[in-house]
Structures are given as structure tokens and as C-alpha cells.
Design the sequence.
């Protein structure tokens, strides 16, 4: 079976504050097979970067193993003093993230602009 | 009610990724039955998690063992059984504690059963050795309001 593998694109954006923000743009599926894509890509972000945006707008399928990888990334970010804002999750996955409590550690925003603005709030 | 019940059966290899076959089949059935998009998304996640549990924990990812999926339609509900050769879960679904996870006092994984219980109207795990065990889930077209 052809898996819809996880694709991740890392970009730097400035938003309004001028402070660099790293965006991880995920696409495809996020599952137990996504460890290298999720954690490996995160590990490529320098510790000096303190603001990270997670873009899930092109994610089709996310299961509990994939959510666990997101939590592991958030643990690592917390240890490095990095702040994570999230946007683009489909309504169902927003519900799932809320159910498991992730929203206590990252805010889910409807779009990139709102998520960016939250860093300066 | 049984005279109105019709069913669809699938047999999936115990290979991660194939849960999407069950998920998409169930979504098509639920759509034909008139379920709304939100309930279909709930069902898709619940079935995917039940199949993953069956593959990983029930059949230990042994691809020679199948995961059975039986979708039974009745006028007001859809019942889904996910069968494997294991003994069934040894514990109840505990709600994940995000604080403990973030402080690495609890595994980041281990949310599947909780999600299943949260997303369907009825669920039970039945152990029937030596044949195996199954998860039984029901979603209703018109669930009773709490």
C-alpha cells in the first residue's frame, strides 16, 4: 500500500515583530512512521530560535501515534525555552487536540497571521 | 431489529497503514446511512485507533494474522467490530494527563483507547479466548442528549 508519507518544509518568516520565526509546514499523514519527519526536522532548528509555528493545514490524517510525536516535539521545545503556536488543523483534529489536552501547551489558531500575532501578544 | 441489519466484512493484514482501508470504508457506509461530516470524522478516528490497537497489541504486527472489521448497519445506528487474535486490553482507557506527558512521567503514546471511548456512543472490549478478542463500537444517528 502506498503510504501518504509525511512531508515537512522548514521556513523562516518574520511576521510583524521582526523576530525570526521558524515554521514547520507538515503535509500528508502524521503517524508512527513520521518520527524522522517530525522529530528529525525539529532537531534541525537551532536552539537560538525561540518561536516555532506548526502548520497543519495540509495534513490529511493524524492518529494517536502521530499526536504522540507532536507531544515529544513540544517536550523538547519546552526544554529549550521555545514557544510553539499551531494553526491549520482541521476542525476534527482541533477537537482531538483539545480532548488530549495539548491546548494547555500550545494555542490552536485558525490561520498563520493569527498564530504569528500571538507571539507578540 | 436484526431483520433490518446488513453487514460488510473486511480482513486487513496486520500492517500499519491498512487501518485506512477500514476507516474509509466505514466513512462511505456512514455517509450512505446519513451521518453528518463531524460524526463521520469521529468514526474514522475511532476505527483507525481500534485497528491500530488490534494490529500492534492484538496481533503483534504479525502480517500473517488478519484484523477483522465487521460493519453492521441498522436503521438508526452503525456497529463496528474490530477483531484480533490477542487477549484484549488489560486495562481501562485512562484519560491522558498532558502535564504528566509533558514532564515525561507518562508515555507520550497511549491515547488510542481514550479517543475511541470519547468519540463513539458506545464501546466495549470483549475477550473471547482462544479465538481472540474484539472491540465493539456503536455510533447512533440520533444519540440521546446528556
Sequence:
Amino acid at each position: 500500500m502506498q503510504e501518504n508519507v509525511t512531508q515537512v518544509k522548514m521556513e523562516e518568516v518574520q511576521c510583524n515583530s521582526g523576530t525570526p520565526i521558524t515554521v514547520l509546514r507538515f503535509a500528508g499523514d502524521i503517524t508512527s512512521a513520521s518520527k524522522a519527519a517530525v522529530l528529525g526536522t525539529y532537531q534541525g532548528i537551532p536552539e537560538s530560535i525561540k518561536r516555532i509555528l506548526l502548520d497543519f493545514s495540509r495534513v490529511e490524517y493524524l492518529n494517536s501515534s502521530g499526536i504522540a510525536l507532536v507531544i515529544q516535539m513540544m517536550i523538547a521545545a519546552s526544554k529549550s525555552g521555545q514557544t510553539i503556536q499551531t494553526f491549520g488543523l482541521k476542525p476534527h483534529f482541533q477537537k482531538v487536540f483539545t480532548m488530549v489536552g495539548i491546548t494547555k501547551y500550545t494555542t490552536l489558531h485558525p490561520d498563520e497571521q493569527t498564530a504569528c500575532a500571538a507571539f507578540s501578544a | 431489529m436484526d431483520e433490518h441489519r446488513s453487514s460488510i466484512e473486511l480482513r486487513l493484514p496486520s500492517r500499519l497503514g491498512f487501518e485506512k482501508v477500514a476507516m474509509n470504508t466505514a466513512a462511505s457506509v456512514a455517509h450512505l446511512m446519513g451521518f453528518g461530516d463531524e460524526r463521520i470524522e469521529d468514526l474514522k478516528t475511532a476505527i483507525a485507533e481500534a485497528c491500530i490497537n488490534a494490529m500492534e497489541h492484538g496481533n503483534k504486527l504479525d502480517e500473517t494474522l488478519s484484523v477483522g472489521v465487521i460493519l453492521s448497519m441498522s436503521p438508526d445506528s452503525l456497529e463496528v467490530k474490530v477483531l484480533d487474535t490477542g487477549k484484549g486490553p488489560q486495562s481501562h482507557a485512562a484519560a491522558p494527563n498532558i502535564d504528566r506527558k509533558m514532564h515525561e512521567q507518562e508515555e507520550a503514546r497511549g491515547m488510542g483507547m481514550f479517543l475511541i471511548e470519547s468519540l463513539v456512543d458506545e464501546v466495549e472490549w470483549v475477550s473471547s479466548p482462544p479465538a481472540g478478542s474484539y472491540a465493539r463500537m456503536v455510533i447512533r444517528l440520533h444519540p440521546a442528549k446528556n
Remarks:
- The CA atoms of residues 17 and 120 of chain A lie 7 Å apart.
- Chain A touches chain B at residues 1, 3, 31-33, 61, 63-65, 67-69, 71-72, 74-75, 78, 90-92, 96, 99-102, 104-105 (CB under 8 Å).
